[in-house]
């Protein structure tokens, strides 16, 4: 599936849950499924500016040209969102990640349950991932895009 197709699947998954409270609860459940980063991993991550909580992201190139995406946060609800982002982007080509906007969040009822600061934080996470993926794509040259 493409990133856009996977995003549509996530939106449908959330629509099936019902209201914003049920979707919020599901994000809390997903947070437990995001692998925790150890302290040494956190040191090599990018600390995302513009988030209320501490959000760390890492993106590295795999031998096959795809990206490995990792994330962590000190807030459970953000960890749930990061789980979805990792699910969407891990194992993708960096050029695809750089060129595909992440829109699943805005298409769920979650947007109404989040503060403006949390919504801005999501945008900051997306911008950071886009920058990391562009850096990897640029380092690989045109042969892997």
TrEMBL record:
Stored PANTHER family: SUFE-LIKE PROTEIN 2, CHLOROPLASTIC (PTHR43597:SF5), SULFUR ACCEPTOR PROTEIN CSDE (PTHR43597)
Protein encoded by which gene: sufE_2
Domain Fe-S metabolism associated intervals: 11-131
Pfam families for this protein: SufE
Lineage: superkingdom: Bacteria
Protein's UniProt name: Cysteine desulfuration protein SufE
Family that this chain belongs to: Belongs to the SufE family.
């Amino acid at each position: 599936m493409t990133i856009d197709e996977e995003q549509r699947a996530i939106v449908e998954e959330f629509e099936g849950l019902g209201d914003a409270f049920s979707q919020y609860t599901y994000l809390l459940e997903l947070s437990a499924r995001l692998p925790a980063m150890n302290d040494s991993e956190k040191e090599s991550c990018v600390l995302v500016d513009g988030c209320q909580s501490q959000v760390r992201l890492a993106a590295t190139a795999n031998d096959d040209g795809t990206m490995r995406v990792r994330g962590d946060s000190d807030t459970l609800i953000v960890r749930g969102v990061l789980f979805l982002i990792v699910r969407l982007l891990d194992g993708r080509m960096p050029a695809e990640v750089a060129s595909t906007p992440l829109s699943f969040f805005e298409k769920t009822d979650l947007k109404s349950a989040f503060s403006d600061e949390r919504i801005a934080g999501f945008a900051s996470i997306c911008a950071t991932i886009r920058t990391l993926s562009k850096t990897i794509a640029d380092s690989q040259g045109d042969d892997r895009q």
